[in-house]
Amino acid sequence: MKKQLIQVSSITYAIKGRDILKSKGIRAYVERSPADMDRVGCGYSIFVKGDIEDAENILNNAGIKVLGRQVGDEV
After folding, report:
1. Strands (E), 9-75
2. 10: domain range?
């Protein structure tokens, strides 16, 4: 599985987003954004194990603005 990260604007939104995704049955974790990811947010991202499209839609519907995403190396 590729490492999937969703970038948000603040650590608060990262934690809130993680909790929302977990309540919907999507495994999600907050972690530092990698150095090569554009630093337009707070430096934290939501690591998603599952369908990143579904996760992004859930976050948008919950009012959490997604600033970007990155699909990286195998985890």
Report:
1. 27-32, 44-49, 66-74
2. 2-74
